[in-house]
Design goal:
- There is one protein chain.
- With 161 residues, this protein is an alpha+beta fold.
- It has one domain: Nucleoside Triphosphate Pyrophosphohydrolase, CATH 3.90.79.
- The protein has three helices and eight strands, in the order ββββαββββαα.
- The longest helix is centred in the middle third of the chain and has 13 residues.
């Protein structure tokens, strides 16, 4: 496999109650409770862009607001490989998967600040606040390991505050 990983950032955005924002992908089957339909905001890092700048840009693009502050950064770059059925199709067909820098952020806004309808082609069609330990069960199979790591390593951030 000679395809590279796409460099990305990801956001575990915590509200005042210590719950994390998950959003439902608009391009996946949207049966309520279907595994894999929900994920954390994430997106590519532009050439030369600092990951701490990229995370706020991605939040603005994907959920309509960047009203947040970084409270933790995962020390490792986490990566996943696409399953064979998605190679050459997902991520523009140019990548084998993603290598991600993850941030825990405290949401400083109000629920009304979260707007999925600002992009003419939104990535998500719904969002909700979830318990951090739910993440692995919400993720598609190939992202489940990363979400398990995040649920463990960002647990100190999942406190009311």
């Amino acid at each position: 496999m000679d395809l590279p990983y796409r460099l990305c950032v990801g956001a575990a955005l915590f509200n005042r109650e210590g719950r994390v924002l998950v959003a439902r992908r608009a391009d996946l089957p949207n049966a309520e409770g279907a595994p894999g339909g929900w994920q954390l905001p994430q997106g590519g890092i532009d050439a030369g862009e600092d990951p701490r700048v990229a995370i706020f840009r991605e939040l603005e693009e994907e959920i309509g607001t960047a009203r947040a502050e970084v409270i933790a950064e995962h020390p490792d770059w986490l990566h996943y490989d696409l399953p064979p059925s998605l190679l050459g199709k997902a991520l523009g067909g140019k990548y084998r998967g993603q290598k991600q820098r993850w941030f825990a952020l405290r949401f400083l806004g109000e629920d009304g600040d979260i707007r999925l309808d600002l992009d003419p082609h939104p990535e998500f069609d719904a969002w909700r606040w979830a318990r951090l330990e739910e993440l692995p069960s919400l993720a598609v199979a190939f992202k489940r390991e990363i979400y398990t790591v995040l649920a463990r390593d960002f647990a100190p951030c999942a406190r009311p505050g």
